[in-house]
Amino acid sequence: MNANSKFISTFFIFFTFFLLNTSALAQKVQTWQWNDLEKITKANNDTLYVINFWATWCKPCVEELPYFEEVTERYANEKVKVILVSLDFSKQLETKLIPFVAENNLSSKVVYFNEPNYNSWIDKVSDDWSGSIPATLFVRNGYYEFCEQDFDFEELKDKIDKQLKKDK
Amino acid sequence: MKILVLMLTMITAFMCGNETNKSSDSSTSQVKQVKQEKAVKGESHDDHVGYKIGSKVEDFHLKSVDGSIVSMADFDEAKGIIVIFSCNHCPFVVMYEDRMNDLHDKFNDMGYPIVAINPNDAVKYPSDSYEGMIERAEEKGFEFQYIHDDTQNVAKRFGAKKTPHVYLLSKKGKEFTVEYIGAIDDNAQNADDVKVKYLEDAIFALDAGKEIETKETKAIGCSIKFR
With CB atoms 3.0 to 4.6 Å apart as the test, which of A70, B18, B51, B197 could cross-link to B55 if both were Cys? Predict the structure, then answer.
């Protein structure tokens, strides 16, 4: 075996390993309906849920995703859970959402929200929600705050720390 | 009164929405209280409060894709106007473009033309520029007026927050009144699966002089980014 072919075969082994590795690491995207989300909105425990409504087609949503990822990373040891609720269209679940989650190796929990009759549930999240995204809901132990806006990390951190401080 | 409004505005300014305590017994009264505060805020003509059902609509003068300046006063033959805040880039709008053409086709002759208004910032979304609007209107063969709210003032006045966002207006004499706010129908993703045509139902009721059954609906849409 000459040096060249050795290099190529080594490269292929690594490349195959790399491919297997990323697909194994990528999280499985669950499909949720209103009942699943409702359980979280009514959760009555110490975990602070940061529920972000987004879609791969929504530019400002995709722009703020890194800040939610940062929350997941920085608050890994606290009772804080980010849930990214995707409002992508059903025909784009396989072609857009799942590849997007894998490519960006998202570590926050991503769920695909399959409730196309929007009028049936938007008011249940908040009367104040016009339906525009991005939008984020904070829920914890009776605390319930809905924000129809985009966030940066500092703004998210302020809201989260304010809640966590209540324990101390 | 002004001081009271200012104080309440300051109280609510710290919150995105209703920060409510759902677990406590006082939650209902808290929600009520916040709502009352909001009602008071509404009197201060906050830009983002916008029109409600029954609001009188102020006229606008905006440039159309055909180069003309369009105002509501131009529609002196109409019985009403279907105002739709719209744009080019939003996938939700794209899913409704064919349905918007069909609606205009169906209701313009009845006296209810569509007027689509694009309030988006071309810096944020280059495809939503005036030139982009001309292109899109040609591609899709829009028969309705597609006009440019380049200052975003009209969208603010209406309280439009997203695209598409529909306001059905009735016309009595020279006065336009908001009769319905919300979505076109109950299924954006698939026109064949639509069960309730909210906007059409509202127009038929209005035209027949009946009470509109569902006056407000909600749907997901692309947020309008105000400068």
Answer: B51
